[in-house]
Amino acid sequence: MKIALAQLNYTIADIQGNSNKILSAIQGAKEQSADLIVFSELAVCGYPPDDLLDYPHFIDACKTAIESIAKACHGITAIVGCPMENPEETGRRLYNSACVLEDGKIVDVIYKTLLPTYDVFNESRYFEVNDIFKTVEIKGVKTAITICEDLWHEMDRFDYQDNPLKLVSVHSPQLIINLSASPFNHGKKEERMEVLVKQSKTYHLPLVYVNQVGAHTDLIFDGSSVVLNGQGEIVHQSASFAEDISYFDLAEQHPVIKAGDLDHIAELHQALVFGIRDYFGKMGFKKAVLGSSGGIDSAVVQALMSDAIGSDNVHAVLMPSQYSSEGSVSDARFLSEQLGNTYTIIPIESAFRAFEGGLSDLFKGLPFSLAEENIQARSRAVYLMAISNKLGYILVNTSNKSEMSVGYSTLYGDMCGSLSILGDVFKTEVYALAKYINRDENRIPDTIIHKAPSAELRPDQKDSDSLPEYDILDTILKLYIEEQIDPELIIQQGIDRDVVNKVIRLVNNSEYKRFQAPPILRVSKKAFGRGRVMPLVSKW
Amino acid sequence: MKIALAQLNYTIADIQGNSNKILSAIQGAKEQSADLIVFSELAVCGYPPDDLLDYPHFIDACKTAIESIAKACHGITAIVGCPMENPEETGRRLYNSACVLEDGKIVDVIYKTLLPTYDVFNESRYFEVNDIFKTVEIKGVKTAITICEDLWHEMDRFDYQDNPLKLVSVHSPQLIINLSASPFNHGKKEERMEVLVKQSKTYHLPLVYVNQVGAHTDLIFDGSSVVLNGQGEIVHQSASFAEDISYFDLAEQHPVIKAGDLDHIAELHQALVFGIRDYFGKMGFKKAVLGSSGGIDSAVVQALMSDAIGSDNVHAVLMPSQYSSEGSVSDARFLSEQLGNTYTIIPIESAFRAFEGGLSDLFKGLPFSLAEENIQARSRAVYLMAISNKLGYILVNTSNKSEMSVGYSTLYGDMCGSLSILGDVFKTEVYALAKYINRDENRIPDTIIHKAPSAELRPDQKDSDSLPEYDILDTILKLYIEEQIDPELIIQQGIDRDVVNKVIRLVNNSEYKRFQAPPILRVSKKAFGRGRVMPLVSKW
Q: What is the pLDDT of residue B460?
């Protein structure tokens, strides 16, 4: 049996566009004499469609699309992910489904059993749980068709009560197929391979795994589809972070591919660049603008933007205040020249003075404080958004995860932007990214990399005045936010109790800021945004 | 059996504070010789605790609290809502539980079966589904203990496969108790009563319903606990929007209370005032600041704020530009005087000119556009936030749901604020609120109520230049957003196709703005925020 793995990049809700991609892949597979073509989870509408699933006309459009795709399936079988209506009168209205298309019609529909509802996943909000376990015969091969989480009954935090693959295995399948929409994050590829290998080995079955590729605002899907033989060995690998339609013949012998060690920083760079590029591409945006402070965060973002959408399309705005260091403008200017970006210098002092003047009566006799610091950050945001509104450049946000965590950023100031590039990247990782960006040549000037981090909003301000050193800070944050570990256990790892408690208090007290933050490119297993829902009014 | 209904206002995650409230209510009930005291759902931690449930030390703290509350239960039975660990090795780690406390210990634990996972509810994210159905004997009365959704197996959009009350009814209960955390929205009280009456009538059983009261940022819980007799008639009612510990003796005869017609605008006013007051109270905030434009939205917010936290605590900032109408300052000033609020006038022209100056090279030869309109809105936000930062006043947002829907508002401008007061109130309802606020005296000047709505960001601008009249707009928005109806069906109701399509396009295209909006006091069955999750990058 010759199988096509259709790893495609869909646009959420672009049912017509997605259908055309699917149809063209089917046509190509027919020309290659494939017996079967497998698409990813919810391919027809893209994953995740969120609350569009609540709208009857959205479901109708998906149904019309899958029926018209079925009509193209003659001489080939296609398995296509699509939301399908629950034929029963009770239970959720929909099933997350794999439609088996043959002879011009939908010949079978397999429903998803395990509905991920944690972190960024919310499938119990929409779908009913499957309770029918059977194989589907495809070209004489008894096939266990599963959808993404169906293979993940053993989880980090809990095991599901059901094990769908075990339930279907009583029917003696000869092949496992999995339609997936599994987003990228640090360590995910290894974790995913572990799960797939274990399932293939447990049932001594070959496994064809087709994952979605493409970025959907915050979520980045890496593709990386694979085929394992019946011994759990990798015998086929699709591209990562790119569309890829590839072919695999089950009847042939294939050499085993050894999984090499991943360079996590290279992978992070690739994920971010892909996430930015796909966001701009799908939104129809060409050009970006950002505030370039001469600091490392904006420098790394500027380099990533240049890599993602082209140096010509990135415009930097340098907005010194009276508190900016001498080097900050020259460093930022040098950076733009190195990266080949256009730039504008707009000192913010006149705007700052105007606000000061307007507030002079009200603030009479009161000392310089956070208010004045924030006026500077917010004046910069007004400039950046004006440039965005007037010239159609899209403002990207440059805050990193460390400062987002502790609220060390100005709401409606440096927290502005349509997309946060580094909001899931800790400061220590930003340095590693800078080093990676400079792997061949010094694109980011050394002076930017080596200066002490500072917001430069008051005289001689340094991040380390009010925060622990970033290696300690990031260790605490990673354990508390990503690993969700109790503070006591962090302290037991040898970090000072007062420091831990202070950092956690800062994290808890800045939920209200993050609530209004831009969407963040997700690259860790716990990013701020849809995957982390915290109460604002609370006492913890 | 004498039952205490403990309708209390908890703070999320304030486990110590909540425990003290619970203990003091138990003590009071003992003094009143009550046999049983019933608390609301997840009383120990408050509802909803969101992802705090993921933290082991949070669950440990809840466990310690419920054990120490149990120790106080001598001579009385208490039923207290609390998250409890799943003793099994598979399935979610937690159950949403009702703990039965007697003789100083936890004598029984009932788990919740139906886990709402739609709109603002997300319980499948945390909890395992109950599959044990039994009664609990309390002072010789066989009692069916249920938790909130357990009584709601028949839903608007789908029916659950399970019906927990039916499953427990085989054990012949004599009484139904329901621990609830059911948030307020327009029409909810009627809907809730319908469900309770139906269940009581179906099983011919008295029903004691104890709901949480209190606001938790966006979610407003109204309390309104009740007791129904075995004929589904109301025989006891607790207060709405207030704490209330009340007593009811099952053995006594009680007159039937007729449910009166509700005045929805009065109720809306009450809900908003309660929501504001509780937000400020729980956050420890005293004073509020808002931009007062002379328009109806900010006027209604100013009146609501005065009602909620006191006239002395509300500061209005009047920030005219060259496009402001003559009346806008005088109307706003008159409003502040009427309401007894302090106010400051800060013209924004000098800030606007400073930005114009800074951008003059970059914008040379380009016409006045949205960019300049937004500079005005954003300059106002800089002033308001500076006042907030310097003086500790909390900025409240004044955007209404109609403009939030169509994106007729400036991100980082008039969309700023820590809490949106009217973000779930359509413009037509804002007028009705103004009328209600003026029911006894003209607190909001007639000129404000009768002027044509305008953003006043360019010469002679009117909302009706670019939007349909508000009664038509709001009809479309209500059907599309709250009822989730297909556009074709809206058109079939007699509204012009082009208008419907334009409005829906505006709604879909402004998801990115709403993503960064403040939390919104929820008063409709579908508010923007956590209850409506929409893709940003999409094509629909």
A: 83
Tell me which DSSP letter residue B183 carries.
Answer: B
Cβ distance of A358 and B366 shorter than 8 Å:
no
Question: Which residue, chain included where needed, has tokens 């119990």?
Answer: A124
Smallest CA-to-CA distance from B512 within A394, A238, A161, A522 is with A394
Structure tokens at B54: 């993921």
3-class DSSP state for residue B166?
helix
| A143 — pLDDT class (breaks 50, 70, 90) | very high
- Return the bridge partners of A35, or none: none
- Residue B134 structure tokens: 């039994």
- Both tokens of A526, joined, read 């716990």
Q: How confident is the model at residue A207 (pLDDT cuts 50, 70, 90)?
A: very high
pLDDT of residue B242: 98
Q: Are A350 and B358 inside 8 Å of each other by CB?
A: yes
Please tell me the distance in Å from B288's CA to the nearest CA on chain A: 15
User: Rounded to an integer, what distance in angstroms lies between the CA atom of residue B451 and that of residue B468?
Assistant: 17
CB A294 within 8 A of CB A332: yes
Cα distances from B412 to residues B419, B514, B517, in angstroms, run 14, 11, 9
Full DSSP string of A124-153 = GGTBPPP-----EEETTEEEEEEEGGGG--
- Are B117 and B148 contacting, i.e. CB atoms less than 8 angstroms apart? no
Which pLDDT tens digit goes with each residue over A418-464?
A: 999 999 999 999 999 999 999 999 999 999 999 888 888 888 888 88
Task: Provide, as residue numbers in chain B, all residues whose Cβ is less than 8 Å from the Cβ of A45.
Answer: none
Q: How far is CA A62 from CA A84, A93, A127, A475, in A?
A: 8, 14, 15, 45
- Write down all domains in chain A, each with its CATH number in brackets: 2-252 (3.60.110.10), 267-463+510-515 (3.40.50.620)
Digit-coded pLDDT (tens) for A74-132: 999 999 999 999 999 899 999 999 999 999 999 999 999 999 999 999 999 999 999 99
Give the residue numbers of A annotated as catalytic, written as ranges.
41, 112, 148
Closest Cα partner for A11 from A310, A244, A224, A221? A221
Residues of chain B with pLDDT under 70: none
A46 to chain B: nearest residue by CA? B538
Report residue B241 as tokens. Answer: 């929007």
The answer, as to whether pTM is greater than 0.90, is yes
C-alpha distances in angstroms, A32 versus A81, A98, A244, A247, A427? 22, 23, 15, 9, 48
Indicate the helix (H) or strand (E) that contains B78. Answer: strand B77-85
pLDDT digits (tens, 9 = 90+) for A327-381: 889 999 999 999 999 999 999 999 999 999 999 999 999 999 999 999 999 999 9
Look up residue B171 and give its two tokens.
Answer: 């054990």
Asked whether B522 and B220 are in contact (CB, 8 A), the reply is yes
Strand order in the sheet with B234-237: B136-138, B141-147, B175-180, B207-211, B226-228, B234-237
Distance CA B411, CA B413 (A): 5
Q: Do the beta carbons of residue B324 and residue B348 sit within 8 Å? A: no
- Kindly report, residue by residue over A297-309, the tens digit of the pLDDT: 999 999 999 999 9
Give catalytic residues of B, as residue numbers: 41, 112, 148
What's residue A284's pLDDT?
97
SS3 label, residue B273: helix
Q: Please say whether the beta carbons of B100 and B145 come within 8 A.
A: yes
